[in-house]
Design brief:
Strand content of chain B: under 5%
Structural class of chain B: mainly alpha
Largest sheet of chain B: none
Oligomer: heterodimer
Distance between the termini of chain A: 31 Å
Number of strands of chain A: 2
Number of helices of chain A: 12
Amino acid sequence: MLRMEGSEVGSVTATVASPTDSNVILWFRTFGAISLSGFRRYATYRQAALAGVVTNTVFGFLRCYVLLAVAGEAGAAAGYDRAQLATFVWAGQGLLAVVLLWGWTDLADRIRTGDIAGDLLRPVHPVTSYLATDLGRAGYAVLARMLPPILIGPLFFDVHLPARWPTVPLFAGSVVLAVVLCFACRFLVNATAYWLQDVRGPMMLWMLASGVLAGLYFPLRFLPEGLQRVLWFGTPFPSLLQTPLDVLVERDPTAVQVGLVALQAGWAVLLLVTCRLVQRRAERRLVVQGG
Amino acid sequence: MAEAGGTLAAYRALLRAQARAQTAYRTSFVIDLLGNVGATVFDVVTVLVLYGVTRELGGFTLRETLVMVGLTAFAFATADLLVGNIERLPRYVRTGLLDAVLLRPLGALPQLLLMDLPLRKVSRGLFGLAVWVTALAGAGIEWTPSRVVLAVVAPLAGVLFFGSVFVATATVSFFWVESAELANSVTYGGRDFTSYPVTVFAGWFRAAFAYGLGFAFVSYQPALALLGRADPLGLPAWAGWAAPGVALVALAGAGAAWRVGVRHYRSTGS
């Protein structure tokens, strides 16, 4: 009988039927081990993290001053006061690196080079293992990329601190959902490589759409209300950044916050399921050349 | 003299090869052209959205701010087209490509630029030019001969300035290979800074970006001179005409930084 423990499950091939003695605890241990290795992998890029923090800080200043100028004499814009706008910008700069909107082409690269064959041989579903790695990466990013701007911002600007207790757990949950959702989006964009080989086109569309529609360039609440509704219900983009940030700055009453996070959860589940469907279709047509 | 002609011919050959290679797949190239203009379009859309919420930013109306937006959009996009790819220098250092480049009997900087000239970014420059012309037409400027000259010279000085910033920040990677993102904070950060009136910003941050790094002279001061507005921050009216001078200083600084960087360069050994 095959002894399987933690991450030592590498000897099972795709042609072997799923082991019948697998259980939920084992699944969680495998998931946890992959996440931890993702955390460690990204924790080695310390110089890159430092450079990233400097960049996030500069853009924090730029965006914060611009949005405060929008609030102007009145001291408020689209339902945000000055402190809320400051928190929105600085937390947003940190969150950007946590959800990792851009720059992830691992899957597309492996599909193009054929290395993906190695992933398919593992006993863990590719969507699951890539998600586990990404959660580990996000965990490191929370420490190395999110905390610095959140600490630096208040040194120079008046920021809004959560006043209601449910905001804190809601924000934490919203960040996790945003990471999962953003991973699913990136996975789908990368997975077009199964059909196209070169993912530059889809990647470019994703970069354009996610930047402006996720709330990075300006809070989406600045847009007309009808358009906001279309974006929130019709696309996953606002759930990537705008929702967790709106929850954090308490732009809306608790009931609306809960609703926004629930919507986010809906999008995350929908896109994860889509990832699995796409992966299954892709595996049927995938041909890896070479020996 | 003959040698100079030969060098020029070599550069021309590099450029021709690039143009042929990049346009070989025509559909792909057209999609790239369209996709690239998108980023600059959204920069302008962002300003329009902000003015949908407020009537003034830092004491300037939309029509006035658009002059700065147009100037920046054209200058940054054109500089990005011509020398923006130097931001790949960290990769050239890491992969050792730079060693090969340094061995050839041509200038290292022009080679790197021509080896990878992103022709798809032409669309951004053209869009920026369109915004610049539209903004000038809509701002109600009282045209004088000197203002016409400024309207032509300021964008070119902006190209020179942003180009210098691209080169100067890229040289950091001679000393610190993982510095790509650091360079972004000054190049793209500078683009965002110059898209708004300097009065929007405050404190030491404004002092550092506007006057320390000189970004105020890219679009803000020339726009004031064209609009005939006094600077709320107190610089005299001739500051708008200082743009070409500041650009030349930046150029000299970038050239010096590049030479120091190349001299400091030790191959990674790969």
